[in-house]
Design brief:
FAD/NAD(P)-binding domain; alpha/beta; binds flavin-adenine dinucleotide
Length: 495
């Protein structure tokens, strides 16, 4: 084999939502990518039904948000009720556009999203997607990685050389196993039956809110999906066999409280064991993991896939930077340090919600876990910032907002900020400063002054600063007030 032959800059293992998002973003960066998927079609069983506005911004960057929005339903929120239908906890979600330019909470059908992501992939000039290709092994050398792939159609094995491998290969990730390291178990483990039905008629009485039935005998969840699709999730008890619980008669008996065969057709069902796991090692050298291969959480917040999309947008531009330099360890080290603590907060919150749904003492859990607001416990959405990473070495007074996502204003010409400035580093300043960035050693920044774009004044006012440096994934690297600080931020470099 010619060891100097590099076939692709990045090989992505797995074309689920995480892999397909990462490949699209790398395509936008012009990176030469191969994405390998072992199945020949999109995963058909019921999975994600919810994503948020931050994640919609990633889909906006990829160019599928408008089409996707047509296939969604805006979610007004979630209610946790006891077995007499008394509301224990309310989690309202505004149904108006928020600071990110999108609604804070959407219901969707995961295969719709995956189809759009793959359609967009096929238009990316530097991305090749191949299905029925199973990655069976990965060998790391000093300068490159060899990926061994079995073509499942022809039962032939070939070797591909690449500079980086990202395992977006789900809960049973082979790449995670090859990277090694512990996987922390955060302690949640429950078996749930998940059922999607297609209503045959309008049934407004089912409502638009997600309802968590906090019944210690039989916890259940109802979700209003787009169009005529509705979801029920039912916790299974010890001794209840999966095969028996999935029989149509059994499923209808669970749903009998709300609907029967005259109202709907059963579309699909599956039994899952919901777990909470966090890998302790997301990278070894040129190999990384993202999405379910790095973390798993119970679905009560609708954030498992969202976390994978966040991994993808965090990693794509860093890989693009890393490809330009031999010193890639520094920038790639920030991937786990930034993402791991962020996803941990989501996992822990999802576990607490799971405990509330399945508790014999819901009030007790509420007391210790949620704020009370005028008698009714109200939950607010969480927005954990990134852990230590890019920008952490700037002076303290320049990193108050480091790791936060900036809002997405509409600009003077009515175009949204992200649409106009793209997946780039963006430097916004009230004053024009003369900063020469080296084309060879420094990432290019898009420089904008509020004299040319007055609509960004408010963004700087909200941050209480005179300048801000934003990464391609819209997170803040640092802010600056004095001219000296503005010059320091303007010369920020990864190398
Ligand atoms: C019932 C349920 C409800 C959920 N609800 C939500 C929700 O509302 N919101 C939310 O955000 N999340 C939700 N989730 C979680 C969400 O579905 C997952 O987090 C998401 O699908 C993970 O995406 P992924 O791309 O990381 O992994 P996957 O979707 O598992 O994709 C991995 C891909 O890798 C491929 N692969 C594996 N091994 C190899 C190999 N060796 N070679 C080549 N290809 C390989 C697989 O075939 C697969 O296509 C829910 C999950 C469940 C089960």
């Amino acid at each position: 084999m010619d060891v100097n032959r590099i076939d692709f800059d990045v090989v992505i293992v797995g074309c689920g939502p995480t892999g397909a998002t990462l490949a699209n973003l790398l395509g936008i960066c012009g990176v030469n990518v191969l994405i390998l998927e072992k199945e020949n079609k999109i995963y058909p069983l019921p999975r994600a039904v919810h994503f948020d506005d931050e994640v919609m911004r990633v889909f906006q960057t990829i160019g599928i948000a408008e089409e996707l929005e047509k296939k969604t339903h805006v979610n007004p929120g979630m209610r946790f009720v006891d077995n007499q239908d008394n509301v224990l906890l309310n989690w309202p979600r505004p149904t108006t556009t928020g600071k990110h330019g999108w609604n804070p909470s959407y219901r969707f059908h995961q295969p719709d999203l995956e189809e759009l992501l793959r359609e967009r992939l096929s238009q990316q000039k530097t991305v090749t997607m191949q299905s029925e290709q199973e990655v069976i092994s990965v060998k790391e050398n000093e300068e490159f990685i060899s990926v061994l792939v079995r073509d499942l159609g022809r039962n032939k094995v070939r070797s591909i050389n690449t500079k980086f491998v990202v395992g977006c290969d789900g809960a049973r990730s082979i790449v995670r196993t090859l990277i090694g390291g512990e996987v922390e178990d955060l302690g949640f483990r429950e078996r749930w039956l998940v059922v999607d039905v297609l209503l045959k008629k309008e049934m407004p009485e089912l409502g638009d809110f997600t309802i968590q039935y906090c019944d210690s005998e039989r916890p259940m969840t109802y979700c209003r999906s787009p169009k005529n699709r509705r979801r029920w999730e039912i916790m299974l008890l010890d001794g209840e066999a999966n095969s028996e619980m999935m029989l149509p008669e059994k499923v209808w008996s669970f749903l009998g409280r709300w609907i029967d065969k005259n109202d709907a057709d059963l579309e699909r069902s599956a039994v899952y064991t919901f777990e909470s796991r966090l890998s302790q090692r997301w990278r070894r050298g040129r190999m990384m993991i993202a999405g379910d291969s790095a973390h798993l959480m119970p679905p009560f917040m609708g954030q498992g896939m969202c976390a994978g999309i966040r991994d993808a947008t965090n990693l794509a531009w860093k890989l693009s930077v890393a490809l330009k330099t031999k010193e890639f360890n520094g920038i790639l080290d920030t991937y786990q340090s930034e993402r791991s603590s962020n996803v941990r907060t989501y996992i822990e919150t999802a576990i607490r919600l799971g405990q509330l749904i399945n508790t014999h003492d819901p009030k007790g859990v509420l007391e210790i876990s949620e704020n009370k607001n005028g008698g009714l416990a109200t939950m607010r959405s969480i927005y954990p910032i990134l852990g230590e990473g890019v920008g952490s070495t700037l002076p303290d007074n320049m990193i108050h907002h480091r790791g936060l996502i900036v809002s997405q204003p509409k600009l003077m010409d009515s175009v949204y900020f992200d649409d106009k400035y793209g997946y780039n580093h963006i430097f916004i300043s009230r004053v024009a400063v003369d900063i020469n960035r080296s084309k060879d050693t420094q990432e290019p920044f898009v420089f904008i002054t509020t004299q040319n774009e007055s609509s960004l004044e408010e963004l700087l006012n909200d941050l209480g600063t005179n300048a801000v440096l934003i990464r391609p994934d819209r997170h803040i690297i640092g802010t600056a007030s004095s001219v000296k600080e503005i010059e320091l931020l303007g010369s920020f470099s990864y190398h």
